[in-house]
């Protein structure tokens, strides 16, 4: 299937069995690597550098924003529809103008930090992840959660604005099944 906004051959790397929706927009495909068995659903926007592991699903209507920022997404990750992953933002304190159309000498202070989403993470619908967030293995969010920079625990469920710890997740079966799938490669 052909994409409306970029040519798949322009991706930095694209693995086997990858499905990219026809309306996915990848603005800088030369900065994007996609592992094996990945699905990126329609109406997703990716203007930044990105690395995606294996067996990962990015649902419809997701937005990854932040200009020169980058996002690293592990394997066996599920990002539900409507999430926003923000690698760059203005500090909004009035130190200058804001936006991609403004020349550099007139810009306010920007906060640009990479985001790392570890293996087996699950982001529920409408989750927002802010610059510098590091989501460890197995972290999950509830719907409409706000994940800021800070320290998070592996295999834990978080929810709320800002998100708070709700409880532990048992990753035993997930890790076992993932190991079997990876051996099949």
Task: Give the secondary structure arrangement, pairings included.
Layout: E1 13-14, E2 19-20, E3 25-26, E4 32-34, E5 39-40, E6 45-46, E7 49-52, E8 57-58, E9 63-65, E10 70-73, E11 78-79, E12 84-86, E13 88-90, E14 110-112, E15 115-117, E16 122-123, E17 128-129, E18 134-135, E19 140-141, E20 146-147, E21 156-159, E22 164-168, H1 172-183
Parallel strand pairs: 1-4, 2-5, 3-6, 4-7, 5-8, 7-10, 8-11, 9-12, 10-15, 11-16, 12-17, 15-18, 17-20, 19-21
Antiparallel strand pairs: 13-14, 21-22
> Could you give me the name of the CATH homologous superfamily?
Hexapeptide repeat proteins
Give the ordered list of helices and strands. EEEEEEEEEEEEEEEEEEEEEEH
Q: What gross morphology would you assign?
A: globular
Total separate domains: 1
Total number of beta strands = 22
SS class: mainly beta
Point out poorly predicted stretches. Answer: none
CATH class term: Mainly Beta
Termini Cα gap: 24 Å
- Output the radius of gyration: 17 Å
Mean pLDDT across the residues is: 94
- Major sheet attributes: 6 strands, parallel
Helix proportion:
under 10%
CATH fold-level topology: UDP N-Acetylglucosamine Acyltransferase, domain 1
Question: Judging by the overall fold, what is the CATH architecture?
Answer: 3 Solenoid
Describe this structure in words.
By secondary structure, this protein is mostly beta strands. The protein has one domain (8-183): UDP N-Acetylglucosamine Acyltransferase, domain 1 (3 Solenoid), CATH 2.160.10.10. The chain has one helix at residues 172-183, and strands at residues 13-14, 19-20, 25-26, 32-34, 39-40, 45-46, 49-52, 57-58, 63-65, 70-73, 78-79, 84-86, 88-90, 110-112, 115-117, 122-123, 128-129, 134-135, 140-141, 146-147, 156-159, 164-168. It has a six-stranded parallel β-sheet, with no helix packed on it. The model has no long low-confidence stretch (mean pLDDT 94).
């Amino acid at each position: 299937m052909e994409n409306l906004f970029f040519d798949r051959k322009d991706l930095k790397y694209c693995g086997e069995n990858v499905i990219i929706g026809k309306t996915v927009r990848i603005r800088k495909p030369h900065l994007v690597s996609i592992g094996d068995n990945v699905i990126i659903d329609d109406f997703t926007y990716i203007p930044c550098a990105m690395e995606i592991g294996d067996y990962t699903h990015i649902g419809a209507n997701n937005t990854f924003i932040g200009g020169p920022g980058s996002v690293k997404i592990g394997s066996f990750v599920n990002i539900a529809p409507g999430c926003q992953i923000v690698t760059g933002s203005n500090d909004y304190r009035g130190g200058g103008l804001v936006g991609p159309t403004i020349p550099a000498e007139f810009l306010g202070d920007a906060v640009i930090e990479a985001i790392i989403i570890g293996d087996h993470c699950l982001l529920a619908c409408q989750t927002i992840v802010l610059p510098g967030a590091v989501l460890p293995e197995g972290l999950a969010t509830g719907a409409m959660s706000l994940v800021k920079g800070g320290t998070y625990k592996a295999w834990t469920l978080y929810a709320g604005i800002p998100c708070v710890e709700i409880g532990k997740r048992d990753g035993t079966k997930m890790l076992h099944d993932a190991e079997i799938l990876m051996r099949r490669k």
